[in-house]
Amino acid sequence: MSEDASIPRVALVTGANRGIGFEVCRQLAQLGWIVILSARDEDKGIKAADRLIRERLTVIPYQLDVTDLDSIENARQRVADEIGRLDVIINNARIHYDDWQRVIDADMTQVREAFETNTLGAWHMTRAFLPLLRESKHGRIVNVSSGAGSLVSMGARTPAYAMSKVALNALTRMFAAELAPDKILVNAVCPGWVETERGKGGRPVDKGAASIVWAATLDDDGPTGGFFRDGRAIPW
Fold first, then answer.
1. Which residues pair with 88 in a beta bridge?
2. Rounded distance between C-alpha atoms, residue 7 and residue 28, angstroms
3. pLDDT, tens digit, for every residue of 172-205?
4. Residue 161 is a catalytic residue
5. For residues 215 and 228, is the Cβ–Cβ distance under 8 A?
6. pTM surpassing 0.85?
7. At 35, phi and psi to the nearest 5?
8. What are phi and psi of 217, to 5 degrees?
9. The pLDDT value given to residue 193
10. How far apart are CA 144 and CA 182, in angstroms?
């Protein structure tokens, strides 16, 4: 057993008051982790965290809007002051699965909004929390991506969402290369199409969340700079 095995790891999950993000918080907390459940809407985050706290899990609600630099800095300062460490960021916040659009006539306002949350939000989060991650012996960054961002199967639909996820995948590769000397593992994960309040007919949400938890809990010699679903590499 390593000398820090008894110290619970700390993870921050964005966009976590419902769906996959909420289930990721539950699964990590069930492993004995301290989990920061962040949500743009403070009341919704508190209510979601309370559900997990009633399960006797260690979950802390934070208000956090990944498109607001002041909000990100406030969250970073809270983590530094209240917990003093961070091992994992899971960039889960995302918007605009625009399956009603095609690239030829896409609403460019929605495209910009998708990039602000799905890509730049993860970029800002990673930069802000890097000092804390660098102090961890087991730093991990998990970018929740999508098969919609795979160039192999790309079509004309969901242009805002798909292009923002392509960019998130590129960001994953770049951060993985940059942070390899720090031994911080950076990976993109597609949870698959799951059954949530916004997505019907998919697989159980706990299966999609398990893909993300796998990347968050990789051994120190695990892969970095990859794109995975269910622990297996998928095409970029």
1. 11, 140
2. 14
3. 999 999 999 999 999 999 999 887 655 566 889 9
4. yes
5. yes
6. yes
7. -120, 125
8. -110, 20
9. 86
10. 22
Whole-angstrom CA distances from 109 to 103, 113, 156 are: 13, 6, 18
Q: Which of 22, 62, 161, 227 is catalytic?
A: 161
Asked if pLDDT for residue 8 goes beyond 50, the answer is yes
Q: Which two tokens stand for residue 96?
A: 């605009």
β partners of residue 63: 39
d(Cα 148, Cα 128) in Å, to the nearest integer? Answer: 27
Burial category of 125 from C-beta neighbours within 10 Å (exposed 0-12, middle 13-18, buried 19 and up): buried
Contacts of 211 (CB under 8 A, 6+ apart): 189, 190, 191, 192, 228, 229, 230, 231
Determine contact, residues 128/73, Cβ cutoff 8 Å: yes
Q: Which CATH entry fits the domain spanning 10-233: 1.10.10.10, 3.40.50.10490, 3.40.50.720, 3.90.1010.20?
A: 3.40.50.720
Distance CA(235)–CA(216), nearest Å, equals 20
* In contact, 12 and 36? CB cutoff 8 Å: yes
Q: To 10 degrees, what angle do helices 19-30 and 42-53 make?
A: 40
Q: Is the pLDDT of residue 120 over 70?
A: yes
Q: Is-contact 21 15, C-beta < 8 A?
A: yes
For the chain, domain boundaries: 10-233
